[in-house]
Specification:
The protein is mainly α. Helix content is 64%, strand content 0%. It contains 9 helices and no strands. 41% of the residues are buried.
C-alpha cells in the first residue's frame, strides 16, 4: 500500500503526469470531441427513470466541495485521524482550485450544452467553477475530489481492511458516471479529473508523510 503514495521523482508520477498531459492535448485539439458528444447524447436519451435519475443526482451531490471539506474537517478534529484529515483537506482545496484554474484558463473546454430530459431534480446541480468564476469542463472537479477521497481513504484503511481497501474506488467511479449522466461533464473530463486527483493526493500524502499513521497504530 505504501506505493500508493509517490513523489515527484518516481515512475508512477511520470506515468500519471504523462497521461494527464496526453488527455489535455486530446481535449484541447478536439480529437475526442466526437466521442465525448456521442456519449453524452446517449446519456441524455436514457434519462427519465425516476429512481435512477434521483440516485445519480444524489451521487453527484456527494462530490460537492462543501460536503467533502466538511467531512475532512470532522476527521481533522479527531486526534487519531488528524493527519489524514489535514492531508485530505489540503488536497480537496488544492484539487478544487487547481482543476478550476486548468479548466478556466488552460483548456477552456465548454460544458455540454444539453438539456437534462430526466425527472425534475430537487434543486440545481452543483458546480465548483464558482471558485474562479469560470465555467470550463476539463478536468472535472467532482472527479478530482472523488479520486482524492478514494486514494487517501483506501490508504488510511489499508491495514485494518486489507482486502476491502479497493472497494472505496467505487465512489470515484460512480461519481464520474453521475457527472456524465446528469450532463455536467464529458467522459474525458471525469477521466482527466480522476488522474489529476490521484496524482495530487499521492504527492501531498507522500510529502506530509501520511505513512506515519501506521506507525502510530503500532504503538
Amino acid at each position: 500500500m505504501h506505493n500508493w503514495l509517490f513523489g515527484i521523482r518516481s515512475r508512477p508520477f511520470f506515468v500519471f503526469v504523462l497521461v494527464f498531459v496526453l488527455l489535455s492535448v486530446l481535449v484541447q485539439t478536439k480529437i475526442t470531441q466526437e466521442f465525448d458528444r456521442t456519449t453524452v447524447l446517449y446519456f441524455q436519451s436514457i434519462g427519465g427513470n425516476h429512481n435512477l435519475d434521483l440516485t445519480m443526482w444524489l451521487i453527484t451531490e456527494l462530490g460537492d466541495v462543501r460536503w467533502l471539506v466538511l467531512v475532512s474537517m470532522v476527521i481533522l478534529i479527531i486526534r487519531r485521524t488528524r493527519r489524514i484529515g489535514l492531508v485530505m483537506l489540503l488536497c480537496l482545496v488544492a484539487g478544487t482550485i487547481g482543476s478550476g484554474y486548468i479548466k478556466g484558463y488552460l483548456i477552456e473546454q465548454p460544458r455540454p450544452e444539453l438539456e437534462f430530459l430526466g425527472r425534475e431534480l430537487p434543486y440545481d446541480l452543483a458546480q465548483d467553477t464558482f471558485v474562479l468564476g469560470t465555467n470550463g469542463s476539463f478536468p472535472s472537479g467532482h472527479a478530482t475530489r472523488a479520486a482524492v477521497i478514494a486514494l487517501l481513504g483506501g490508504y488510511a484503511f489499508s491495514n485494518r481492511f486489507p482486502r476491502g481497501r479497493y472497494l472505496i474506488w467505487i465512489f470515484p467511479i460512480l461519481e464520474s458516471l453521475s457527472r456524465v449522466y446528469v450532463l455536467q461533464h464529458y467522459p474525458m473530463d471525469v477521466i482527466g479529473g480522476s488522474v489529476f486527483g490521484t496524482v495530487l493526493a499521492a504527492i501531498v500524502g507522500n510529502k506530509l508523510k501520511l505513512n506515519k499513521i501506521f506507525d502510530k497504530s503500532k504503538t
